[in-house]
Structure formats: C-alpha cells, structure tokens
Design goal:
Rossmann fold, five-stranded parallel β-sheet, 8 helices, four-stranded antiparallel β-sheet, Arc Repressor Mutant, subunit A, 21% strand, 12 strands, alpha/beta
C-alpha cells in the first residue's frame, strides 16, 4: 500500500528520520515544521493522510486537526510525546483517526498507517449490498455513513461509527472485546482493550439518554458488549 503522507513535526531530526523510513516503505512524504506550513502544503498538494504532532509551535496540533478535518476531510494520526492519556483521548474525540506515542517503532507507524488507509478505502467504497439498519428509533445508513435517533442526526467520528455498526449488525448478541478490536481496529490493536472502553464511553454519551445507565449499548461483565434490541 502506498500513498502521500504529510508529516508535521517541529523536531527536524525526527522528521528526516521518519520521512526516510516511510519513503523506503514506498510512501511519498512531504514534511512541515509547523501547522501553518502544513495547511498551505495540503491546499497545494492534498495528501492521503496526515501524521501530526500535538505539541507544535504556533498553531498546536489540536487546532490543526480541526482545520484538516473541516477543510480537507483527511485521516489524521497524532504523534505525541505527552504521556497523559487525556491528550490522546481529547485528540481522538475531536476526530483524529489514531495516535502513536513517542518514542515509537517505525514498524508500529507503518502498521497504523496501513490500518487507517485501509479503513479509509473501505469507507469510500462501501458495498451497495450494505443495508440500512433500524433498531427502534435508531437508524444507521452505512452508504451515507450517518446515524439518526428519532430523526436527529448524531455526529460520530469514523471509529465510533464503525464500532456502533459492528454492534448493531448483530443486536442482542454479546461481542467480546477481542471481536470488536478485530472488526473495528484490526490485528494491529490486539491486546489494547482500552481503545474499546474509551470509544464505548464516547458512543454512550452521544446515543444514550443516560450514559451512566445505558440501555442501548449494554455491558455484559466478563464477556463484552451487546446492542439491545428493545427501545430505550
């Protein structure tokens, strides 16, 4: 798999090293030291994906993410040296597709890039046989990539949508954490259950009347989660 990557990081040494490794793997790489230059580059030569450092000078990574998503709709993977999970969670909730914590192994970066780009291709080439799912007052349209509850559209990130769709395809069936990781995130995320927990929490905030007492996405302790068939 190849593509055009826009790498944005103020660490020149890291930029050169990572760009070299990505090019060796077959990617075209354009680099920028700050968000302002990166946005100018993206306007001239739109990339397929953006690797974006959170701690940038000037416009930081979170603000840059908003611009990238609103102006270009591109997938974004955060690169962060910040250890606090809050930074990573906030970034993903704003719409980042993934994050990688520094220092990182190049093989991990390549695996995450492939996973995000693969999912991107799948989203832009949805099979016409995928049917709209209606459960009570909730409707999921895979072709339009929309979710509605009682006629009101719910704004979900791509990963939140994929997780909800995976659960709703088999309402009433308990799905394990490993099953959900495999379906939604891919083999690269095996052994990282925290990403499922975090996204379940975000989904509940968006689709449950009372997220602390969910009636749609129900926890089956020691097993996993299931989407309830009955109306909440």
């Amino acid at each position: 798999m190849s593509g055009h990557i826009l790498l944005v990081d103020d660490d020149a040494l890291m930029r050169r090293g990572l760009a070299f490794n990505l090019e060796q793997a077959g990617y075209q790489v354009t680099s920028a030291a700050n968000a302002e230059d990166a946005l100018d580059i993206a306007r001239r030569t739109p990339p397929d994906i953006v690797l974006l450092d959170i701690g940038l000078p000037g416009m930081d990574g979170l603000d840059a993410l908003r611009h990238v998503k609103e102006e270009f709709g591109l997938p974004v993977i955060f690169l962060t040296a910040r250890r606090r999970e809050l930074d990573e969670i906030v970034g993903l909730e704003l719409g980042a597709d993934d994050y990688i914590t520094k220092p990182f192994n190049v093989d991990v970066v390549l695996a995450r890039l492939k996973a995000v780009l693969r999912r991107r291709e799948t989203e832009t080439a949805v099979s016409p046989t995928q049917k709209t799912i209606t459960i009570g007052d909730l409707t999921i349209d895979p072709k339009a990539h929309t979710v509605n509850i009682a006629g009101r559209e719910i704004d979900l990130t791509p990963r939140e949508f994929d997780l909800l769709h995976a659960l709703a395809q088999e309402p009433g069936r308990v799905q394990s954490i490993d099953d959900l990781l495999a379906q939604v995130w891919g083999a690269e995320f095996k052994g990282e259950p925290q990403v499922v927990y975090v996204h379940i929490r975000w989904l509940r905030k968006k689709i449950e009347t009372d997220p602390r007492n969910p009636t749609r996405i129900v926890t089956v302790h020691g097993v996993g989660y299931k989407f309830e068939i009955t109306n909440p």
